[in-house]
Design brief:
8-stranded mixed beta sheet, alpha+beta
């Protein structure tokens, strides 16, 4: 292939993509939304200063977040070429979804229209990661300003801070809490997408559903990733609706290439296309969702039809920070922890300069400094970050956690060896007593990046939480095969509401509250001329923070193109052990890090970065080789 951005590279990339899309096509047979609640609207919720209730038994971690229980299982490594494009691009985790977004752009739609079409196809072809039953965060550049659209799930009105506690006051095992109805939050993705499309879209709402409906009716070929995940999951087949859809009569997952039709989802999509998100949040579909959540035999939940009807997305002010005196990095504010953690890490790293790469692999010296910075960032994350409608920012402003003087103070804690304990800091103006959230797993998502012909851009991260969510499938009350999976997002809350001293955990369960997220949809701008530089993000639970940071560093600090940056070996920490992507580092790297005091574990770190960067003459897109994603465009 020609060099990125060259005419030969573009032609050959298009030929490769055309062959791929044609093959997939052969296999596959290929109303107005409500208003968004503004971020500064009064919250009908108690402030964080409210009583946390009686002291509980000492917290017991629901699960070891470093134990290797990572969001989604790996499914191989397929090299990706990177895609040089001149005018517009769609990067998504499945070729059929990317093609749906591209069709909307070709039809005269914009980045928002394309994002809706992509999400609806992902609900069909990547049901293990996102869909109608989950939530999403979307960052939009409309050519003039950046806006943040919050479709995060909310806790039911009947939920309380003891939701995940046993009668003795100790937390439930994570697996027992995550499977079934208990952890299902009010889904928000569809309502949010409807709101942003009403404000910024161009095509008729119903048009955006045509690709997904056609694929649901005709069927799509089961891919290797979905097949592997079905084969490995031990919970999904316990749900009758899911078992009938995903598995054959003998209980085996459908083989790769099997044409999987989803008539129940097609019916729900037709209803949403005709009547908007009300078709999901009211009436027969809502009643079916609630019946399955509350009627789960072993682990019922508290969701009600009133919760679904009352859900509203929020439009928030994006949180932007300048970096390297050249870039403005804009991300999502709380309830996401992603942007604050990423920019804390990058801000601390700016004050230290070990050589980052040797022979294409991060060096031990650099990994040590990065890990220590990340541990400090995660300590702040666990103490301070939660739904801003319930929890006040330190000193009244989230930017206090990104202040230059504060980050310099934090970076000064990083020494030549691993610090025994990474403490939370005390930003300017913060005087409250808050408990740190105990460690527990976070799960997977999908990410979409889009740039349209007029330079508008979307970064959309979308999720149902764990692989296959709560392992509950709704047919929307149709009685037909298939449907959509429900989220288990409430497990993103702390299972314990307070520590042994009765200090409240910011991210505890409260009715109507949005759980803390790690989703990190990101847009980057050039400080010199204000032009968009990049749109990016990743799935991966709490590791999203590291996957996104790695891509930013690789492209904007180390001079790699975005595909090569995504390809770099992954690394992560959640405050404890340092995790290295298995099979990607020389033995000497782990040995050197252990000599500095780090506990090192080698695991599959299955990122799913989708990114598009500005290059001379157009755009260059990258897709993660660890998943099935591609970039489509012109």
């Amino acid at each position: 292939m020609g060099t990125p951005g060259s005419g030969e590279g573009i032609v050959q990339t298009r030929r490769l993509l055309s062959r791929r899309v044609l093959l997939l096509a052969l296999l596959a047979g290929c109303a107005g939304p409500p208003s968004v609640v503004p971020a500064d609207a009064p919250a009908d919720a108690p402030a964080d200063a409210s009583s946390a209730g009686p002291a509980l038994a000492p917290p017991v971690a629901a699960a070891d977040a470093d134990s290797g229980e990572l969001p989604e299982r790996g499914s191989g490594h397929t090299p990706k070429p990177g895609w040089a494009l001149s005018r517009m691009a769609v990067a998504a985790a499945n070729p059929l979804a990317a093609e749906a977004g591209w069709r909307m752009l070709q039809a005269g739609g914009n980045a928002v229209d394309a994002a809706v079409a992509v999400q609806m196809v992902l609900a069909l072809v990547e049901p293990q990661s996102s869909g109608l039953g989950g939530g999403a965060l979307l960052l939009l550049w409309d050519g003039r300003r950046t806006s943040a659209w919050d479709g995060r799930e909310t806790a039911p009105a009947a939920a309380d801070e003891r939701l995940f506690l046993r009668p003795d006051g100790r937390p439930m095992p994570f697996g027992a809490a995550a499977v079934g109805g208990r952890a299902v939050g009010v889904p928000g993705a569809v309502r949010m997408l409807e709101a942003v499309q009403r404000a910024h879209g161009r095509l008729p709402w119903a048009r955006l559903f045509e690709p997904a409906i056609a694929l649901a009716d005709r069927g799509f070929p089961v891919g290797e990733r979905l097949h592997r995940q079905l084969a490995a999951d031990v919970h999904l087949a316990q749900d009758v609706q899911a078992r009938r859809y995903f598995f054959d009569a003998a209980g085996a997952p459908w083989p790769i290439g099997h044409r999987l039709r989803n008539p129940a989802l097609a019916e729900v999509l037709r209803a949403i296309a005709a009547r908007g998100a009300d078709a999901l949040h009211r009436g027969a579909v809502a009643a079916d969702i609630v019946a399955r959540v509350r009627g789960h035999a072993g682990n019922p939940g508290r969701l009600s039809e009133a919760d679904l009807a009352a859900y509203r997305p929020r439009q928030r002010a994006p949180l932007c920070a300048d970096w390297r005196q050249r870039y403005r990095v804009c991300g999502f504010p709380p309830p996401s922890s992603g942007q604050i953690a990423i920019m804390q890490i990058l801000g601390m790293l700016e004050r230290m300069a070990p050589a980052p790469l040797a022979e294409g692999v991060p060096t031990p010296a650099w990994l040590h400094v990065y890990t220590e910075a990340a541990r400090l960032a995660f300590a702040d994350r666990d103490r301070y970050l939660a739904d801003p409608d319930y929890v006040a920012a330190p000193g009244g402003d989230w930017r206090a956690l990104l202040a230059s003087a504060y980050l310099a103070q934090r970076a000064a804690l990083i020494g030549p060896t691993r610090m025994p304990r990474a403490p939370a800091g005390q930003p300017a103006g913060e005087a409250g007593a808050r408990a740190a959230m105990p460690a527990q797993p976070e799960s997977g998502t999908s990410h979409v990046s889009i740039v349209d012909a007029e330079g508008r851009a979307v970064a959309l991260t979308t999720t149902i939480e764990a692989e296959f969510g709560a392992r509950l499938m709704s047919d929307g009350g149709s009685g037909k095969a298939g449907g959509f999976l429900l989220n288990n997002q409430l497990t993103d809350f702390s299972f314990v509401p307070a520590d042994a001293a009765s200090r409240p955990v910011a991210n505890r369960v409260q009715p109507g509250k949005r759980p803390r997220s790690s989703m990190s949809p990101t847009l980057v701008f050039d400080l010199r001329d204000g032009r968009l530089v990049m749109t990016l993000g990743s799935p991966g639970g709490a590791a999203i923070i590291h996957y996104t940071a790695k891509t930013l560093l690789g492209t904007l600090a180390w001079g790699l193109d975005v595909q090569r940056a995504i390809d770099l070996p992954n690394f992560a920490t959640f405050g404890g052990a340092l995790l290295l992507e298995a099979g990607r580092y020389p033995d000497a790297t782990a040995a050197a890090l252990r000599a500095l005091g780090h506990e090192v574990r080698e695991l599959e770190l299955t990122s799913g970065v989708q990114a598009i960067e500005r290059r001379p003459g157009g755009w260059f897109g990258g897709a993660d080789p660890r998943r099935e994603g591609v970039v489509v465009g012109e």
